[in-house]
Amino acid sequence: MTENYKFNPNQKCEYFPCHKGVEKEDFNCLFCYCPLYLLGEECGGNYSYHDGLKDCSGCTKPHDSDSYDFVMSKMHLIFRRND
To answer: With 80 as the cut, is the pLDDT of residue 26 above it?
Structure first.
């Protein structure tokens, strides 16, 4: 069984690659908007706060080759918050 659904490199995007630190051939655009942003400090990514706003510009977690498995492993935290 293939797992092609886990990786989507959108090299035609005008912002590709939008984050430094991941090689172009390994850059995953599947989570262009990271669903883990909602988790604040529990997201597990490399973020910082500037003027009270979460800044994820230095984070590559949703864009590296293991991003699908990483994001899916955290989704239960999002669901728990919405119960």
So the answer is: yes
